[in-house]
Write a structure and sequence with these properties.
single chain, about 300 residues, alpha/beta, TIM Barrel, 2 domains, five-stranded parallel beta sheet, three-stranded antiparallel beta sheet, 15 helices
Amino acid sequence: MAQRHITLDTFQQVLESIYGLKHISIQGEGEPLLNPQFFDMVKIVRLLHPDASVSFITNGSLFSAENVDHILSNRIARIMVSIESADSATFKEIRGGKLEKVTKGIRMLLKERSRQGLTSPVVGFAVTIMKRTMNDFKDIVSLYHDLELDGGIACQYLQQMEIYSNIYDNDMKTQMLSSSEISWFDELRSNSPEIKQLSRLADNDSNFYTNLLGSESEGCPWLENGLFVNTAGIATGCCQIKEAETRGFGILTEFTSEVVAAKRSEMQTQLISGLIPGGCANCPIAISVQDNFLLKQQSIV
């Protein structure tokens, strides 16, 4: 995706084009707090959709005193801090930053939240599991407790969809887990009451993705209840569809909202009919929907 900030005008245009907004996650492929108008966007949400929850994922490097004040005064519901390793040296190799700066900022945020008598935002970890760090997950759990976080730990595997893997360098490709390694890690999580509890915390009501993906849908939950809009204002089926110009639904405005909704519905119909749209290639959700369609066809026969 093009690395650029969404403009305030485009953001407002999008927010004016939808109704019934329950939760918005303001983030993209970069660090959301680098956008100098990030909190202006939050204020637009508050103005147009006062009951909507706001959350974001961050690398945690920009928890300055000023940003902490804005986070608390703008009633952010949840913040997940991306992390792959609790070891300072490994963290720097992977992310290029200092783990100590991140933990210092988190402590400051939680201390000020406590001083003001607030309960939000809840703060947790978003962990991308890599081959080189999968055996060190217990150290991330320990760091979570040391920091006294309360937002749980959400885990995902290094994305294997071709739109991602095609741009990985050779080193990154070696970090993708095999199916047996994924099974091993899944078993590790399922057999640990502590990790299961932290996963449940990550999946509570203030989690955008849990609300979205946990909803019942014959097809894709994104196409049922969600929408991704990129920095140019182009709507797509989900955050994993990067080819917005060719795979998207067009620019979202008050005048195009019905067209966008119709294209979204058409994509869902195609998926439920057993066909995987081009932008959904290798997506686990799309594959699962297709498998369910094939099973139903076999039972009919």
